[in-house]
Write a structure and sequence with these properties.
Helix content: over 70%
Distance between the termini: 23 Å
Radius of gyration: 19 Å
Shape: globular
Number of strands: 3
Order of helices and strands: HHHHHEHHHHHHHHHEEH
Strand content: under 5%
Largest sheet: 3 strands, antiparallel
């Protein structure tokens, strides 16, 4: 990859990492379900009129929109609202790579090799260490909801793999249209119209800035730049930059929110990031493949030092790397 493109990949990872701090600030202004609905509303409009028609079947847009947009983000925002720290949340969500590998084995017949299984085991040990640390210093309910959000993310990754969207940004913008009404309905039902109206009446420039960041910067810019990189380079060259997300998440939370990082949390971070790296980048054998046929999970093949022109890869490889690393 060219130095400028390496910098762009690192910038996207930073944007996605800092996003957790922005979410924490947003939860001081909005109830979690209303906040999530506003996020998707701003991400969908006006972008949905600019990206063209959907390029995959509606069943995949609806499926990913419900699992990722309604369930996953409801769990994440509620977990953080219950006290899960921003930095820890950015770390815990990376276990989605383990859930993705497990669900891909069940639904797609992708058999994990020994290295991938070892990576999943290491990541799960990291989750255990993080749970011990959180149990000693914070609410376990929020921690558990973040893990459940990671599991839903794994389901949405498998659905996206089946959908194989050729244009990741187009797909994510259309997916963003799905959760708006369900989340608004859930917010009215569970959070109450009075609380929602109070939040909307008290909307200030900080609240507007939060919505703009989580919708336009994180989604539109983040997915647009990430998808552009994936069209130029193998997914195996781009996807590892997503491992920087919890580094930026924990660092920005410590810098802007004053979150402390204990020795146990650093240990959990090292185990989780290392385990996720092994899980995400180790070869996966498809069901029914010959003994010598393996496929890199999220890898597109080719040389990162090759020519800067477009790199040919299947839509599934591009979409898998995109959805398993975006926020």
């Amino acid at each position: 990859m060219r130095p400028a493109h390496i910098a762009l990949a690192a910038l996207v990872a930073a944007v996605w990492g800092v996003n957790f701090v922005v979410i924490e600030i947003g939860l001081d202004h909005f109830p979690p379900l209303l906040f999530s609905a506003l996020r998707f509303l701003a991400a969908a409009l006006p972008a949905v009129f600019l990206v063209g028609r959907p390029k995959v079947a509606w069943k995949w847009i609806l499926g990913v929109g419900l699992v990722l947009g309604v369930v996953k983000f409801s769990l994440l925002f509620t977990g953080m609202d219950l006290g899960a720290p921003a930095g820890l949340s950015s770390l815990i969500l990376q276990v989605q790579a383990v859930f993705t590998a497990l669900f891909a084995f069940v639904a797609l017949g992708e058999r994990p090799g020994g290295l991938k299984i070892a990576g999943m085991a290491v990541a799960l040990v990291g989750i255990g260490v993080a749970a011990v640390d959180e149990g000693a210093s914070g609410p376990l309910a929020g921690f558990a909801l973040c893990i459940a959000a990671a599991a839903c993310w794994g389901v949405s990754n498998v659905l996206t793999r089946k959908a194989s969207p050729p244009d990741a940004l187009n797909f994510m913008v259309w997916v963003s249209t799905v959760p708006i009404l369900p989340l608004l309905a859930l917010s009215l039902l569970l959070e109450g119209p009075e609380r929602d109206l109070e939040a909307l009446r008290g909307l200030d420039w900080t609240g507007v800035g939060v919505i703009v960041y989580v919708a336009w910067i994180t989604t539109v810019f983040g997915f647009g730049a990430w998808g552009w990189l994936l069209r130029r380079y193998p997914a195996s060259s781009v996807a590892p930059f997503s491992l920087l997300v919890p580094v930026f998440g924990m660092s920005s939370a410590a810098l802007f929110l004053g979150e402390g990082v204990s020795a146990l949390r650093w240990c959990a971070a090292a185990l989780l990031v290392g385990g996720v790296a092994l899980t995400s980048l180790a070869p996966t054998r498809s069901a029914g493949a010959g003994d010598g046929t393996t496929r890199a999970f999220g890898g597109g093949g080719g040389s990162p030092a090759g020519p800067p022109g477009p790199v040919e890869r299947s839509p599934g490889e591009q979409s898998e790397a995109t959805l398993s690393s975006g926020r």
